[in-house]
């Protein structure tokens, strides 16, 4: 995984974006936390480009592939949505 940032596509043409906007989702979050969110989202994009969900396995077998998903680790929780036909992962909300 390489750090790309919002809107920068990986080799498969996938990218992540804040929805509805970066200001609404990330607001005045400190830069180090925004960097952490970016790294997590870059990883989720790489997985989505391979049709893998970190919790549920294959996106091909998911009956609701565009549902709202969560990813959490010891530092943060993100809510996101994967849209395969647009090759985008939309970041909806972040909790630190």
Which helices and strands appear, and what pairs or packs with what?
Blueprint lengths: L14 E4 L3 H5 L4 H19 L2 E2 L3 E2 L9 E5 L4 E7 L4 E8 L1
Parallel strand pairs: 1-6
Antiparallel strand pairs: 2-3, 4-5, 5-6
List its traits.
single chain; 96 residues; alpha+beta; 4-stranded mixed β-sheet; two-stranded antiparallel sheet; 2 helices; 29% strand; globular
Note the quaternary state here: single chain
Shape: globular
Strand count, sense and barrel status of the largest sheet are:
4 strands, mixed
Written as H for each helix and E for each strand, in order along the chain, the element string is EHHEEEEE
Structural class: alpha+beta
Q: Evaluate the radius of gyration.
A: 12 Å
Strand order of the largest sheet: 1-6-5-4
Distance between the termini: 22 Å
Proportion of beta-strand residues: 25-35%
Mean pLDDT: 91
Q: Helix share of residues?
A: 25-40%
Count all strands and give the number: 6
Number of helices: 2
Low-confidence stretches: none
Question: How would you explain this protein's 3D organization?
Answer:
It is a single chain. By secondary structure, this protein is α+β, with helices and mostly antiparallel strands. It is built from two helices and six strands. It has helices spanning 22-26, 31-49, and strands at 15-18, 52-53, 57-58, 68-72, 77-83, 88-95. The strands form two sheets. The chain has a four-stranded mixed β-sheet. A two-stranded antiparallel sheet has the order 2-3. A hairpin with a 3-residue loop joins strand 2 and strand 3. It is globular, with a radius of gyration of 12 Å. The mean pLDDT is 91.
């Amino acid at each position: 995984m390489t750090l790309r940032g919002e809107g920068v596509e990986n080799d498969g043409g996938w990218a992540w974006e804040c929805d509805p906007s970066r200001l609404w989702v990330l607001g005045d979050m400190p830069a180090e936390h925004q960097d952490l969110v970016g790294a997590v989202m870059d990883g989720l994009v790489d997985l989505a480009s391979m049709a893998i969900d970190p919790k549920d396995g294959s996106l091909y077998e998911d009956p609701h592939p565009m549902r709202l998903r969560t990813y959490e680790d010891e530092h943060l929780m993100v809510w996101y949505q994967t849209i395969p036909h647009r090759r985008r992962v939309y970041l909806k909300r972040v909790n630190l």
